[in-house]
Each structure stands twice: as structure tokens, then as C-alpha cells.
Amino acid sequence: MAGSSRHRGVFLAAALMVVAAFSLVPGVASASGGGGCGGPVTDEAGTRVKIESYCFTPTIVRVEPGDAVTFANMDAAPHTVLGANGAWGSYDVLKRGREATYTFAEAGVFPYVCTYHPGMVGTVVVGIALDQEGEVGPQARRALRLVEALKLETNLPIETWDESGTTAAARAMGGTSENLDARAAAVILQEFLDARNR
């Protein structure tokens, strides 16, 4: 009888260890690149990021050097905004209805997370985005070469403008896909004119 009781105890301990081991196996991640909300990544120019439904919106915000970006928590849940390696942002709790503002003085790519909610991520892109080696990427280099060539040929002032988010804005205007580029160009021109009139 004593051997049987000991055998049951060993069996019970082994069963508990198996259950514990399976509970530690990671499951399917519930968060995605859409800021933890499972939605698509959004990419827009602006200086405001809304925190809502466990998402940073836009996921990628594009600003110019010296701009301040405000993060506004609309969720009932608390959140944080902390840059990679704690280089900027804060562990401080951002409660519902509260805002935090951070200024980005230099060009670069600045990823951030909510430390409370894994997968809730975003990025601030300041100026021209750099590649992993810290260099201007090939598409941006071509655009900058074109700008320099136009300046030399025309002797006219040329200003560059961030077009991110303009295709989405053009789609929201309605119309056919045939004139999508024309609508996006109109959005770019209007953004430029609005910025000049501020």
C-alpha cells in the first residue's frame, strides 16, 4: 500500500510538471505590426499620435527635425511611450485623456513601444529615413539627385515634401483608380500650401 501511495505521488508530481511545462510554451502572438491591434500599419505625416484600442495611430508618423510629437491616450487602459533602449520617452503611466509630447531634434528613425502591452509598437521617422547602416536609401538618393539636377537646370527654388499618407488620403476622396495619382498630387500641393500659410 505504501508503494502504491508513493507511486501515485510520483505520478501526480510528473503530471503537474507536464501541465506546467505546456503552460510555458508560447502560443500564437495576439499582437501584430499594426501597433498591437491586429490592424494594418498606418503611415502618415503629422505631429499627433492617437493611442486607441491598443494601437498607436498612425503606426509610423513622419515629421521634420525639430518637430514635437504628441501622444494622446484615448484608451481606458494605461499606456507608456518608450523609445528603443529607453533613448527617449518614459516609463511614466499615460492615463486616459492624458498626453505626452517629445521633440525630435535630429533626422532618424525612432521606434517605440508601450511597455505594458507587448506588440504595441510604432515609429517616428524624422526627415529622410535612413537605412540600417544609417545611410539615405536608394529611392531617397534618386529623389535628392533629381532635386539637385533641377536646381542646376532651372535656377528655381525647389522644396521637397513628404508624400507619405497622401495615397490613402487620395483614396478617401473617392473617384476612380485611374486618377488616383492626380488626387494624391492635389493632396501634396494642398499640404504644402497649408504649411506655407501657417
Structure, briefly:
The chain has four helices and ten strands; from the N terminus they run αββββββββββααα.
Q: Which word captures the global form?
A: globular
State the major sheet: 6 strands, mixed
Largest sheet strand order: 1-4-10-9-6-7
Helix content: 25-40%
Low-confidence stretches: 5-35
Query: Which structural class is indicated by helix and strand composition?
Result: alpha/beta
Number of helices: 4
By CATH reckoning, the class of the domain at 43-126 would read Mainly Beta
Indicate the CATH architecture of the domain at 43-126: Sandwich
* CATH fold-level assignment of the domain at 43-126: Immunoglobulin-like
> Quick check: average pLDDT?
76
Fill in the keyword field for this structure:
198 residues; alpha/beta; Immunoglobulin-like; 6-stranded mixed sheet; 4-stranded mixed sheet
What this model shows, in words?
The strands form two sheets. Strands 1-4-10-9-6-7 form a six-stranded mixed beta sheet, with no helix packed on it. The chain has a four-stranded mixed beta sheet with strand order 3-2-5-8, with no helix packed on it. The chain is 32% helix and 26% strand. It has 198 residues and is α/β, with parallel strands linked by helices. Among the domains are: 43-126, Immunoglobulin-like, CATH 2.60.40; 163-198. The protein is globular and about 55 Å long. A hairpin with a 5-residue loop joins β6 (79-83) and β7 (89-94).
What are the SSEs and their pairings?
Elements: H1 2-24, E1 43-45, E2 48-52, E3 55-57, E4 60-63, E5 67-73, E6 79-83, E7 89-94, E8 99-104, E9 108-113, E10 121-126, H2 138-154, H3 166-172, H4 180-196
Parallel strand pairs: 1-4, 2-5, 4-10
Antiparallel strand pairs: 2-3, 5-8, 6-7, 6-9, 9-10
Helix pairs in contact: 3-4
